[in-house]
Amino acid sequence: xxxxxxxxxxxxxSGTRTVHAVTDVTARVSRGATIAVTGPxxxxxxxxxxxxxxxxxxxxxxxxxxxxxxxPHADPARAGVVFQAPSLVPTLDVIENIALPLVVAGATDAxxxxxxxxxxxxxxxxxxxxxLPDTLSGGQAxxxxxxxxxxxxxxxxxxxxxxxxxxxxxGAAVLDLMFRVAHEIGAALxxxxxxxxxxxxxxxxxxxxxGKLEDSVARG
Length: 220
Ligand code: ADP
Ligand code: MG
Known about the structure:
The protein has 6 helices and 9 strands; from the N terminus they run βββαββαααβαβαββ. It is an alpha/beta fold. Magnesium ion binds near residues 160 and 161.
């Protein structure tokens, strides 16, 4: 078990301005699971992913990471998070961007660079290594962010509408890569999307409606 949510709620603000972003959600993510989190804009998808990443603390209920012991946010090697706009450091080239969290996690510079090159090669992206982020297209930047996650070998891969800003062809290619990375590491993959055609590729679909996990469907 990677993440367990037990009657979890998340409110933003307080008093009359309280927004109930997530309400009483109980759910689990096991190793190797692939889950699409769907629902309309404002239904709580991002909030749910942030809770699973340990980036937000629940207002009530419990989020736990039985396989990790502590919040994955405390260690970048535990949960790889991909956002709609990938967060690459603009002054570092792609190799250095991939190496950075490895160094933070304790690898030597040389080892981090080797692992970064290896991750790029595995994804056939070696040519991106010495590029600076602002020279990359949206799809290339998402691929670089995925190589960073592959290098980290984080067992939990969380992606918040990773294809939301990409055209459908590039989006499909990035999603292919995401499945490859998850498979390569043996990681669980949790992806939020409002695109139903994307959701069909996952083992499971969680549907959010106004902060509630209304429906959880497993596919054969
Ligand atoms: P989704 O990702 O499905 O669009 P979100 O989790 O972003 O949904 O948002 C759920 C609800 O919480 C929405 O009503 C949104 O406006 C509100 N919300 C999200 N983030 C914040 C925040 N930082 N402060 C206040 N309200 C927020
Ligand atoms: Mg969102």
